[in-house]
Design a protein that fits this description.
This protein is globular. The strands form two sheets. Strands 1-6-7-4-3-2 form a six-stranded mixed β-sheet, with no helix packed on it. It has a two-stranded antiparallel ribbon with strand order 5-8. It has strands at about 1-5, 15-20, 40-45, 55-60, 75, 80-85, 90-95, 100. By secondary structure, it is an all-beta fold. It has no helices and eight strands.
């Protein structure tokens, strides 16, 4: 296995797609690291700067990410890619020191009509 540090600041926009949750084994047991710290997994999507392409990754941390809503932009520190191979299978595992909100979380009303627009079912100019 080879650990590769990744400069997350150069990746572009990073958003949460699956809120943080404890990482579990296939039989439902909560996973811990060697020191006994609970591991958390957060689904992220990365949109490369200046490109249309996105990449989805699951990132493991031992510090519980707080205040992160699905769809919110996040910042990631200490991101590392770890190539692995086991019993004929291989892949990349992602770890980070922290995942934190990059700014205010999107509001549930995002995408609704602007305040100056008439309410649905009403014609403009009526009181």
């Amino acid at each position: 296995m080879q650990n590769k540090p990744i400069d997350a600041a150069r990746l572009g926009v990073i958003r949460c797609t699956v809120a943080p949750e404890p990482r579990t084994t296939p039989d439902g047991q909560i996973r811990t690291d060697r020191e006994g710290n609970t591991q958390f997994v957060t689904g992220l999507v990365i949109r490369e700067e200046g490109r249309r392409r996105t990449h989805g990754i699951d990132v493991v941390t031992i510090v519980e990410p707080r205040g992160i809503a699905e769809g919110a932009e996040v910042t990631v520190t200490g991101l590392t890619a770890i190539d692995w191979s086991q019993e004929g299978r291989s892949g990349t595992a992602w770890r980070a020191e922290t995942i934190a909100p990059a700014g205010p979380a999107p509001s549930p009303a995002a995408g609704s009509a602007p305040a100056s627009a008439p309410a649905p079912g009403r014609k403009g100019g009526e009181s």
